[in-house]
């Protein structure tokens, strides 16, 4: 009898996976999840240190969310939001609007984070057409930022190696510096940050009459959990207002508790014009994404004589089962005070990260907040010796994956801009789970130390 791994290798085409990894005898086949742990077909337990792909906020293996999905399937398995509504989508949208900052009270549902970003791009462009300003087309986003895989979202993405295979993408995107290594000068403000000064220069060079929007994540994932300097988001808001641009917070990762608040925007005290979301909205129990829009902007598009309709939609957008799952998931996150767990353990999480820096000479630093972190690696912190390109490849592709297999840890080695280990466990992780996580991280970093020492 052919086993599941062999059938996968024969018939399942993988996402973002190198051929040698997919064809490996070590390819895991995960069959069950419970809490913060996963089990493979051999029965081995793995700690999910990445919450799936930054999404399983409520943890694996719950019974209430599948029950809500089943009830919805029996009641109304499918209907659309094209010229109609249904209770599941209305409940989910209302809950999200109540949790959102400021006047972001209108929700457009799709199926993924990439679709959410794509929808935001289309809304922005059509909005400006409806306002009689069709030349406002250019979108600014940050260098090394990841915003999705569809062609519009990929154009907004600032990672060239992801874009290169696909030739000409959507025109009209520009990238300004991210915040890596930035601090506010003594006596200065966020307006003095080189990245934001460069953004202003670029907007003025293009002409604000040609610029539509700024996209940014509250904490930038790619390049390693870049926490913004104090006042950064308020200054982005001022820049957007000064030049009549829409400000978009891409919260596909950051929303629904990952940073300890319902939305990362709220953590940094800003109300953007649009928020894109996905992952944590359902904790991965069903595919769902969406765009939160300031109500006045949505009404202006609907009421404008040049528009009158958002010329965009998806068959599965606002699917009854997915939105029922979202409503149940968000209620569980709220009623079980899961965000309090994140806030209460954030300091402990960071103490463990400090211990990793102290114990391992290959750790340059850690960055992050809430339950969202990156550990950046180097050749030797004390001497300043950097990793060679070959060492970086070996660490990401061989050393860290092998060490994690040995201890039963799933997390993400990352090479986008630096060599890093990303940590993003389920938000229900308590201190016992965090201790288990850091036992695995400690063993993984010990393998890194040994490898770079030679």
From TrEMBL:
UniProt entry tagged with the keyword Glycosyltransferase: no
Protein name: Aspartate aminotransferase family protein
Family indicated by similarity: Belongs to the class-III pyridoxal-phosphate-dependent aminotransferase family.
PANTHER family: AMINOTRANSFERASE, AMINOTRANSFERASE CLASS-III
Keyword list, A-Z: Aminotransferase, Pyridoxal phosphate, Transferase
Top-level division of the source organism's lineage: Bacteria
UniProt keyword annotation of Protein transport present: no
UniProt source species: Metallococcus carri
Gene Ontology terms for molecular function: pyridoxal phosphate binding; transaminase activity
UniProt xrefs under SUPFAM superfamilies: PLP-dependent transferases (SSF53383)
Pfam families listed in its UniProt record: Aminotran_3 (PF00202)
Record PROSITE patterns: AA_TRANSFER_CLASS_3
